[in-house]
Amino acid sequence: xxxxxxxxxxxxxxxxxxxxxxxxxxxxxxxxxxxxxxxxxxxxxxxxxxxxxxxxxxxxxxxxxxxxxxxxxxxxxxxxxxxxxxxxxxxxxxxxx
Length: 97
Prior knowledge:
This protein is mainly alpha-helical. It has helices at 2-24, 31-54, 61-76, 81-94.
C-alpha cells in the first residue's frame, strides 16, 4: 500500500513536468514571445535575490546594495560566477558598517 502511494505521488509530480517538455518543443512561437520567455529566468532570479540583498545586515540595507552593485560590476566584466559571488561576499564582509 505504501509503495502504491509513493508511485502515485511520483507520477502526479512527474506528469506536469514531463508533458510540457514534449509539447513545447513542437510549438513555434513568434519572435516577441521567444524574447519574453527568454527573459523569465532572469526576472525570477532577480526576484529571488533582491530581497536578500536588502537584508544582508539588519538595519543597514546599504551594505547589501553595495555588495549587489559590486556583483553586477564584476558580472558585466565577464568574470566567472564563483568570482562574482566571492567578490560580493568579500565586499560585504570588508565594509565597516
